[in-house]
Amino acid sequence: MSMRGQIISKEYQRMEWVQDKDGKEFACYHDDVKGFDSKEGLTEDQKKRCLDVSQVAGDTW
Hints:
- The protein has helices spanning 3-13, 44-49, 54-57; strands at residues 15-19, 25-29, 51-52.
- The protein is globular.
- It is built from three helices and three strands.
- A three-stranded antiparallel beta sheet has the order 1-2-3.
- It has one domain (15-57).
- It is α+β, with helices and mostly antiparallel strands.
């Protein structure tokens, strides 16, 4: 594996996949979603720090 692949793999392992209370899935770094409550959903600040997966994969993914 190239150094680039190792860096990408290391970053991927730091991420969490979070489903918001509205059913949307977000890819977030663990530190950005500390205190996440699945009943309350993501705060607006947390959403800004995460990637909405539907923006990458499309709404029907």
